[in-house]
Amino acid sequence: MPGGTGGPGEPPAPVAAADARAGAQPHFASPDVCFHESWLEALREYHDEGRHDQLDEDILEDRDEFGRYCAAVNAGVERPGQPDFYLAELHGTPLGEWVDGYVPQTVLWWVAGDEYLGRLSLRHWLTPHLLYFGGNIGFEVRPSARRRGRATAMLAAALPLAADLGIDPARVDCEADNAASRLVIERNGGVFAEERDGSLYFWVPTG
């Protein structure tokens, strides 16, 4: 799912199913059909928040179509922009021009067992547009899995991956009123750079 940083400050959410699975340690995995059922549950949670409306649950309930979606997301490194191209073709809508063009992007899902907990996007380099709209790293946690340190752990696990790509420091941003996301960034060593148009911008060391 397209994603930014974390989620809005909310009361404690219900315990996600993954927490009840003994020995299921959260880790990164590439998007895959084995997470289909849990991903759909997370999508419904996002839709309840009014987010990710461009992802049609009725269409992606089909396992084969979901497999094509996963393939498009995974192709975003070799074929930058492929996830957007896929969604435009799926819905028969014109694809708007992306400012400065697309850059290679690795998308990883944060999972425990077969449970989808969140996602992280790692953009391999910055354009002038991405400097203020997206940054190097964007992350989100599904509503039912928030408030348990997921985002902090996910960002921490991503920093060595960014370093392997030669990114140091990484640009990460959040909305100015999102105290939870700001704390996630600062806990991972984020150094405040500036505030602009309702967003906070940080440089996070990856080495």
Q: Can you give a write-up of this model?
A:
It contains 6 helices and 7 strands, in the order E-H-H-H-H-E-E-E-H-E-H-E-E. The protein is α+β, with helices and mostly antiparallel strands and 207 residues long. It has a domain at 25-156: Aminopeptidase (3-Layer(aba) Sandwich), CATH 3.40.630. 35% of the residues are buried. It is globular, with a radius of gyration of 16 Å. Strands 1-2-3-4 form a 4-stranded antiparallel sheet, sandwiched between helices. A 3-stranded antiparallel sheet has the order 5-7-6, covered by helices on one side. Helix 3 packs antiparallel against helix 4 (82-91). Residues 2-22 have low confidence and may be disordered.
Supply database-style keywords.
globular; four-stranded antiparallel sheet; 6 helices; disordered N terminus; 30% helix; 207 residues; Aminopeptidase; alpha+beta; three-stranded antiparallel sheet
What is the H/E string? EHHHHEEEHEHEE
Distance between the first and last residues' Cα: 28 Å
Residue-averaged pLDDT: 90
Q: From the coordinates shown, what is the CATH architecture of the domain at 25-156?
A: 3-Layer(aba) Sandwich
State the strand order across the main sheet.
Answer: 1-2-3-4
Could you name the CATH class of the domain at 25-156?
Alpha Beta
Q: Which of globular, elongated, flat, extended, rod-shaped describes the shape?
A: globular
Strand content: 15-25%
* Overall number of strands: 7
Helicity range: 25-40%
CATH topology name of the domain at 25-156, in short, is: Aminopeptidase
Radius of gyration: 16 Å
Q: What low-confidence regions span 5 or more consecutive residues with pLDDT below 50?
A: 2-22
Number of helices: 6
**Class of secondary structure makeup:** alpha+beta
Strand count, sense and barrel status of the largest sheet are: 4 strands, antiparallel
